[in-house]
Design goal:
Largest sheet: 8 strands, mixed
CATH topology of the largest domain: TIM Barrel
Number of helices: 10
Shape: elongated
Distance between the termini: 26 Å
């Protein structure tokens, strides 16, 4: 069989389990409820959730209703709560009920829609309630929540979880964190029988005040540091590799790739890799990103749709050798910084063109 020119994406489920245990230790008794939206951050929600369920996870978060339905099928008969962050949209009640999904209510309109559906049901409808404590994204304002409670407008809804989201959790010293904590604690007091959750990946590492009953890690499960820098406690879950297709010499001063902006500073050898932005390598990483080839970091020269060129220097390599673009030697947060982005985007951009291999 001829060797393949496809890139390979290896997903290490043992590393995922390790990261889950690290976060569970940090959570110190709070439930660890994985966020597996966007198809498990691009790595496959089914295999990710099944392994995490085997590790003890009982609650999962997705963004879209369709993601929740797919995850329920993936988990089959495994007992698990699945919460949908988009909440209760018009007409979604029967589908939420059929797949045993819990909507996270984010507005008074969603509360009204959920109540209207509850009126057609024999018992209360399970919901979570999201409160905006200063991020100004999703969630009800505190004054709205207090009005709903005071006027008994949550009747027919079983609010099992009250949650919010930190806007500056990756910056432990930012004053917005304690301000949001205070606002959340005040609203949480209106629901003494409900569980509470404020922290996602970053917040889970901010200390006991932020943990409440549940933390909701996403990116840190996959190796992204809680402060958007590499964290030695966490392991790389995704490893993107590509084969060398060709090796060639470039004289000092010669241009490389499109345009006239990339020029060889000295005579060197370059390796042409079978991977590009169609596989999920963000094009902007060429400005400071690296690859791991022949036992060392190598400069990226260009990232095109199907091809990437790296500086090989005098290293011994040959066509067919695999080069790491993301993984234990090329860390997620480092590559994200080179791209002017964040680890989340680096993962969810990984495409289905690369051959996927699950390890562990």
């Amino acid at each position: 069989m001829a060797p393949s020119s496809r890139a390979r994406l290896s997903i290490d489920l043992d590393a995922l389990a390790h990261n889950y245990r690290v976060i569970a230790q940090e959570a110190n008794g709070a439930e660890v409820a994985p966020v597996v939206k966007a198809d498990g951050y691009g790595l496959g929600a089914g295999p990710i959730a099944r392994r995490l369920r085997a590790e003890g996870a009982k609650t999962f978060f997705v963004a879209r209703l369709e993601e929740g339905e797919a995850l329920r099928r993936d988990l089959a008969e495994a007992a698990a709560d699945i919460l949908v962050l988009d909440g209760f949209t018009g007409g979604s009640g029967p589908r939420l009920s059929a797949s045993r999904l819990t909507p996270v209510l984010n507005s008074t309109a969603q509360v009204s829609a959920a109540r209207a559906f509850a009126d057609t049901q024999p018992g209360p409808v399970a919901c979570a309630l999201q409160v905006d404590t200063g991020m100004n994204r999703q969630g009800l304002a505190g004054i709205e929540v207090r009005h709903l409670v005071a006027t008994d407008q949550l009747a027919g809804l079983q609010i099992g979880l009250v949650m919010s989201h930190l806007g500056s959790g990756a910056d432990p010293g930012h004053p917005r964190n304690p301000a949001q904590l205070s606002a959340f604690a005040e609203v949480r007091g209106l629901f003494p029988d409900a569980r509470a959750s404020l922290a996602a990946s970053a917040g889970a590492f901010l200390g006991p005040d932020y943990r409440f009953d549940m933390v909701r890690p996403g990116i840190s499960l996959f190796g992204g540091g809680p402060q958007e820098t590499p964290d030695p406690r966490l392991k790389a879950v995704a490893c993107l590799e590509a084969p060398i297709l060709d090796i060639r010499s470039v004289a000092a001063g010669e241009l490389i790739g499109y345009g006239v902006t990339i020029r060889a500073e000295a005579t060197t050898r370059v390796a042409l890799l079978g991977v590009g932005y169609a596989d999920g390598v963000i094009r902007a990483t060429r400005k400071g990103g690296s690859a791991w080839a022949a036992g060392a970091r190598r400069r990226l020269y260009i990232v095109d749709m199907d091809l990437t060129v790296i500086d090989l220097g005098t290293a011994e390599a040959r066509p067919g050798d695999m080069v790491e673009l993301l993984g234990p030697h090329v860390l997620l947060d480092d590559q994200a910084r080179a791209a002017g982005s964040i680890a989340h985007e680096c993962l969810v951009r990984l495409s289905s063109r690369a051959q996927r291999v699950y390890l562990g």
